[in-house]
Amino acid sequence: MKKELVSFEGVHCANCGAPMQGEFCHECGQSIHSVLRPMHHMVEDTLDMVLHIDGRIFNTLPPLLYRPGFLTMEYFSGRRQRYVAPFRLMFVLCLLSFFVTRIAIDNIGFADTNLEASAGTGDFARDTTPEAVRARFETMRKDIDKAADSAEHGKKTIRKLISVERDHANHRLEQLGAAPLPVQTEDGWDFHQNKFEASWLPSSMVRSINRSIEHMGVNLRGATAGGEEGAAAQERILAGVFGVLAQTMFVVMPLFALLLKLMYVFKRRLYMEHLIVALHSHAFIFLALLLGVLVGGLRSWLVPHAAWTSTPLLLVIWALGVWVPIYLLIMQKQVYRQGWFMTTVKYLFVGWVYCWLIGIALSIAALLGLAH
After folding, report:
1. Neighbours of 172 (CB within 10 A)
2. Can you say how many angstroms the Cα of residue 134 is from the centroid of all Cα atoms in its chain?
3. DSSP string, 4-65
4. Under a CB-based contact definition with an 8 Å cutoff, are residues 226 and 236 in contact?
């Protein structure tokens, strides 16, 4: 391969005027390369700056998956250039795993919605005008309410029956080119009348809390209604949950590192070292989640065409699930270099506390998702 010899003799920095000794100015740090380049170079630079996905990813992912603690010990030893930085690695894998998981959940929900929507228009197929459809639906709704009162059915069953008939009516109204039926409000807590009041809080914050509470009520009623209304509410909730899930993980991360610091306080390690352990641990968890979801999607696609692939792919998913706790235990042993007994005791305690942290984080994400 022909090598190009580049000389910087006589070249000065365009920013500070210092003589250039390389591609970057040793005085101000500005690059010698111009930013006025074709658009595809700008896109490449942007992706490299945000994701930094280059050849180092191939040196990073394999040991991250099957060599517990290796990347962390390499980082501590100063051998960092060959590998993706811990925070960037965790950040990219977190986004990818949540993105793929969201797509998988959406596909499952889409299939369920199509299954429910395939019921057709029912008795409303005989109606030739929107007024007749609406009148028939109102009659059916009253009949269902009366039958439910006499048979003492639960409210959830009533809502499900009415929701199915509403879907049929809306399908027929869509065929007739008319507007759909309005969403029925349920009895119970009135989120419009029962508002949160706190004189010691700013009025703008009180209004924001009341809007969130109202959204929670609408989403909860919709999610339990079933049919297309329920699917739409579930979609809103999922969008809200996944919208805040990554942020909640970034709050859990430093808390997990602090927990490691307390558990190994006599090791006299810096907090940053524990944070790197936390970053690599979560990067592995997100990688395992990403692979599990991808294998699950591959299984769903292959099984209808090759049924024999079902068991092997299912075993791969189970193997990933079993490997996660074993990997984290071995990693803790490799990094902190204590005996197996003390490592296991601390591992179980850290895991117990971490489960509570994750539970709280997921609960907060769920509440914020309901308020979306």
Report:
1. 24
2. 40
3. PP---TT-B-TTT-PBPSSSB-TTT--BSS-S---HHHHHHHHHHHHT--STHHHHHHHHHH
4. no
Give the side-chain half-sphere CA count within 13 A for 294.
Answer: 10
3-state helix, strand, coil in the chain (%, to 5): 70, 0, 30
The amino acid sitting at 231 is: A
CA 158 – CA 184 distance, rounded (Å): 12
3-state secondary structure of 236: helix
Q: Judge whether 139 and 165 are in contact, CB under 8 Å.
A: no
| Count of C-beta atoms within a 10 Å radius of residue 68 | 23
CA–CA separation, 114 vs 102, rounded Å?
A: 18
Distance CA 213, CA 232 (A): 18
DSSP letter string over 200-242? TS-HHHHHHHHHHHHHHHHHHHHHTT-HHHHHHHHHHHHHHHH
Neighbours of 274 (CB within 10 A): 23
Q: Which structure tokens are listed for 211?
A: 């809007």
Per the CB < 8 A criterion, the answer to whether 167 and 228 are in contact is yes
- The Cα–Cα gap between 372 and 370 comes to 5
* Tens digit of each residue's pLDDT (9 = 90 or more) over 313-354: 999 999 999 999 999 999 999 999 999 999 999 999 999 999
**Confidence band, pLDDT 50/70/90 cuts, at residue 143:** confident
DSSP letter for 263, please: H
8 Å CB contact between 75 and 83? yes
The tokens describing 237, both together, are: 């909730």
Confirm if 172 and 133 have CB atoms less than 8 A apart. Answer: yes
3-state secondary structure (DSSP) of residue 360: helix
Helical (H) or strand (E) element with 301: helix 271-302
Q: Give the global pTM.
A: 0.65
The CA distance from 294 to 320, in Å, is: 12
